[in-house]
Amino acid sequence: PVNFIYGNLSHARDYTSDLLDLVQTYEQYTPQPHPQILAKIDEIDLDFLKEDLPKILSSMRVGTERIRQIVLSLRNFSRLDEAEMKPVDIHEGIDSTLLILQNRLKAKPDHPGICVIKNYGNLPLVECYAGQLNQVLMNLLANAIDAVESAMSQSTPDALKIHPPCIQITTTQSDREQIQIAIADNGIGMSDAVQARLFNPFFTTKPVGKGTGLGLSISYQAIVERHRGSLTCWSKLGKGTEFTITIPIHQTPNRQPSEREKAR
Predict the structure, then answer these.
(1) Is there a domain that residue 80 lies in?
(2) For the ranges 57-66, 94-103, 202-211, 219-228, which has the lowest average pLDDT?
(3) CA 198/CA 232 separation, integer angstroms
C-alpha cells in the first residue's frame, strides 16, 4: 500500500501541475471572468491554493518516502525471512537499528539531542544470524541511550554544551578472521561491582518496570554461543561505557574459541 501511494504521488503531482498551468492560461486570456467565477475564486482563495497545493504534495512525498525507509529498516532489522546464517552487511544492520531508535535520539524540551558518531571501517560481508545480531545492537544502543539520558538528567545546560551527549559506533576488521563493533557512550558509567554482574540473567540497575534484566544476558548468549564470538564491557563511573562485539567473519562448524577469546 505504501508503494502504491508513493508511486501515484508522482502522477498526482504532474496532473496538479497541468491543472495549475491551465488555470494560469485561463487567467491570462480571460482577464475579466464572469462575476460567478470571480466569487468562486475568492471563496476558495485561488492564489493561496495555487501556492499551497504543490507544497502539500511535496510534503506527502517526503512522508511516504520516510515510511518506506522505516518499513525497509524494520525488514532489515528483523530479517524474519532469514532464519539461517548468511553473509550480511553489518553497517546496514546498524543503520537500520539507529533509524528505529531515531525518536529517542532527537532533542526533547528538557535536553538536547544525542549525537551519534559513526566510525565505519571497511568491513567484508559477515556470516551471522542477522536478526539476532540486530537485536543485540538494539539492546546495546538502547542501553547507551538510557545511560546518556541518566547523565543528562544529572547535568546542567552549560555542562551539556561543553560535553554534549554522544554515542560513538566504531567498526573494524581486527584481523583476517574477525570484525569488531564498539558502541561507546559518555553516560553515567558503571561501578566494578555492577560490571561483574552485568551479563547475569535478571540483573538490572533500572527502576522497577523499566527493565527485565534479560537484554544483556540474551545478547551475551547470542554473540558467544550462537556466533562463537565475544561481548566485553569497559566502564567507569562518570566517564561512560563501551561494549565491544567481536565475531568471526566466517563461521566454521564446531570452531573452538581462540586463546585470545578465552582470555576475554
Answers:
(1) no
(2) 202-211
(3) 10
Alpha helices in 154-257 (DSSP H): 157-162, 192-196, 215-221
pLDDT band at 21 (very low <50, low <70, confident <90, very high): very high
Among the three residues 73, 100, 116, which one is the final residue of a domain in this structure?
A: 73
Distances (CA, A) of 223 to 21, 115, 245: 60, 27, 7
Q: What pLDDT was estimated at residue 263?
A: 47
In the predicted model, what is the mean pLDDT of the chain?
Answer: 84
Examine the domain organization and report whether 11 and 40 are in the same domain: yes
114 and 185 both lie in a single domain: yes
Rounded Cα gap, residues 69 and 75, in angstroms: 10
Q: Which three cell numbers stand for residue 174?
A: 581486527
Please indicate, yes or no, whether residues 113 and 224 belong to a single structural domain of this protein: yes
Residue ranges making up the domain that contains 182: 87-263
20: in domain:
yes
C-alpha cell read off for 199:
551479563
17-23's contacts with Cβ under 8 Å and 24+ in sequence apart are: 17/54, 20/50, 20/53, 20/54, 23/50
Per DSSP, the three-state class of 209 is coil
Return d(Cα 177, Cα 155) in angstroms, integer: 42
The model's pLDDT over 147-168, given as tens digits with 9 standing for 90+, comes to: 999 888 888 888 888 889 999 9
pTM: 0.66
pLDDT score, position 261: 47
